[in-house]
Specification:
InterPro entries: AA-Vitamin_Transporters (IPR050638), EamA_dom (IPR000620), EmrE-like (IPR037185). It is found in: Membrane. It is a multi-pass membrane protein. Its main location: membrane. The protein is mostly helical. It has one domain. 79% of the residues lie in helices and 0% in strands. The chain is built from 15 helices and no strands. It is globular, with a radius of gyration of 20 Å.
């Protein structure tokens, strides 16, 4: 992976890590369905600045529904049903494993040994962090968050198939797909009064939370992420999401004053080690082979 692309994806991961804290703050103002509706509402105003991507309507709706409605509805409900923000940022990264699995069987991508080793190493780091985490996690919250991670993974596969389309246009236009499902859910479950009350009681913090999650986390983040998903092998890009919990936990420590234990730090180091194996393993193996050849030639 090129250094420029590496820096781009790290910027996205950092912003996504902070996004869990922002979502938790935004969710304190309203319900999951209303927050989801307001999160994607700004996309309507952006349609005038981007051409509609030339993709089949079925794929257009499937991508927007799976990635934006299903993923975020399940995630928001999971957080609302007892999944702490920091833990949600970790559990959601199961998408890296779902994505590699789906890519292998649905796209026919080769699954490299170094990717498998790197994923296993990173998984052990996340497991270490999870084992010593707060016991306040609920089973239903965990199930919803895992379901959200599988939707993200399927969205990655659909994104991989949508080659030749501008990622900004794709993100903006498919971002209006979840509006109707979120609105219907809000009206049926929460009622019109709850929507009106949320809008009337909104302050600058809530507005900033909505704008951050929609413009920065979704449009900027998904545009960069999708572009790199197309450019590189899925098994190279997807594991980077395993860094999200590290940024999320760090943001929680700085913004919310949450404590980072030594186990958290060790687990984070193991996750990064696994990513290094996945991203730089090929270069390391190539370097070692070249060095071995030079030593062999020098002894002749």
């Amino acid at each position: 992976m090129q250094i420029k692309d590496l820096l781009l994806i790290l910027s996205v991961i950092a912003l996504w890590g902070l996004n869990f804290i922002i979502m938790k703050i935004g969710m304190s103002y309203t319900t999951p369905f209303i927050f989801g509706f307001l999160r994607f509402l700004p996309f309507v105003f952006l349609l005038f600045f981007f051409k509609r991507p030339k993709i089949p309507l079925k794929m257009f709706i499937a991508y927007g529904f799976v990635l934006y409605f299903c993923q975020f509805a399940l995630l928001l409900f999971g957080m609302n049903l007892g999944m702490p923000a920091g833990m949600a940022s970790m559990v959601l990264q199961a998408q890296a494993f779902f994505t590699v699995f789906f890519a292998t069987f649905l796209l026919g991508e080769s699954f490299r040994i170094r990717s498998f080793i790197g994923l296993c190493v990173s998984a052990s780091g996340l497991t270490l962090i999870c084992l010593q985490a707060d016991a306040s996690i609920t089973i239903i919250g965990l199930i919803f968050t895992l379901a959200a991670s599988s939707c993200w993974a399927m969205g990655n596969i659909l994104m991989k198939k949508l080659t030749g389309t501008d990622m900004k246009s794709l993100t903006v236009w498919t971002g209006v797909v979840p509006l109707l499902p979120f609105l219907i859910g809000s009206l049926v479950i929460d009622g019109p009064e709850a929507i009106v009350q949320t809008i009337h009681s909104a302050d600058i913090i809530f507005v900033c939370a909505i704008l951050y999650t929609s413009l920065i986390a979704t449009i900027y983040g998904n545009t960069i992420w999708g572009g790199l998903m197309r450019k590189y092998n899925v098994s190279t890009v997807a594991p980077f999401s395993l860094l999200v919990p590290i940024f999320g936990l760090s943001a929680a420590a700085i913004i919310l004053g949450e404590h980072l234990s030594y186990i958290d730090i060790i687990g984070a180091f193991i996750v990064m080690l696994g990513l290094c194996v996945n991203v730089f393993g090929g270069r390391i193996i190539q370097f070692l082979k070249q060095r071995s050849r030079k030593q062999t030639n020098s002894t002749k």
